[in-house]
Amino acid sequence: MTTETSFTSLASIEYVPYIDESGQLPEQFQGKIGVYAIFDQEKVLQFVGYSRDVYLSLKQHLVRQPQYCYWVKVQSIERPSRAILESMEKAWIEENGSVPLGNGDKREVWTHPIDAKSVMTVEEQANYENPIHDEMGKIKIIKNVARRVEAEILAVLQERGLQMQVRFNPKLKEEGLLDLK
């Protein structure tokens, strides 16, 4: 380590179920500043990140990548320090032995709003590109695509047993983006 702060190794932290038996995210991380590691069903590391509110970040990742969010490990810190958080994140990735997909080639799908335009069906794409549609018509098409993708995500989360309310920002849907409100 390059700092004087000692970090808890990733291996020494207990796995916490991403969605507990009552269908909730781990509430003990609400408002906590820290580093977190997300694992898939087989406990293979998928993403390491840090946040000023780990709970909110976990919620965002769950809607963006529900197929990879089954287990989480968290190390919280009392005072926000980007340098410490970045060092911990780097140390956990190094400890893993390889860069998780979510921190490499797939980083954008873990950290940016969902772009519904990228998953348009052939029919939706043709409809969108039809010259008879003005700007308002295109916005309506994009909103409908975003609503379809939102419904698909919510169905997956319901199947996973999630009981908490998930609300997407309605203003972003006009741009074809899905992000939590």
Map the helices and strands:
Blueprint: E1 16-17, E2 33-39, E3 45-51, H1 54-64, E4 71-77, H2 82-96, H3 107-111, E5 114-115, H4 122-129, H5 135-159, H6 170-173, E6 177-178
Antiparallel strand pairs: 1-4, 2-3, 2-4, 5-6
Helix pairs in contact: 4-5
Task: Please name the defining characteristics of this protein.
single chain, 181 residues, alpha+beta, GIY-YIG endonuclease, 2 domains, four-stranded antiparallel β-sheet, two-stranded antiparallel ribbon, 6 strands, 38% helix
CATH architecture term of the largest domain: 3-Layer(aba) Sandwich
Coarse shape: elongated
Tell me, what is the CATH class of the largest domain? Alpha Beta
Strand order of the largest sheet: 1-4-2-3
Cα-to-Cα separation, first versus last residue: 37 Å
Counted by DSSP, the helix tally is 6
Biggest beta sheet summary? 4 strands, antiparallel
- The count of DSSP E runs of length 2 or more, i.e. the number of strands, is 6
Strand fraction band?
Answer: 5-15%
Number of domains: 2
Helix content: 25-40%
Description:
The chain is of the alpha+beta class and 181 residues long. It has 2 domains: 10-111, GIY-YIG endonuclease, CATH 3.40.1440; 114-178, no CATH class. The chain has 6 helices and 6 strands. It has helices at 54-64, 82-96, 107-111, 122-129, 135-159, 170-173; strands at 16-17, 33-39, 45-51, 71-77, 114-115, 177-178. Strands 1-4-2-3 form a 4-stranded antiparallel beta sheet, with helices on both faces. The protein has a two-stranded antiparallel sheet with strand order 5-6. Helix 4 runs antiparallel to helix 5 (135-159). The longest helix is centred in the C-terminal third of the chain and has 25 residues, at 135-159. The protein is elongated. The chain starts with 15 loop residues before the first strand and ends with a strand.
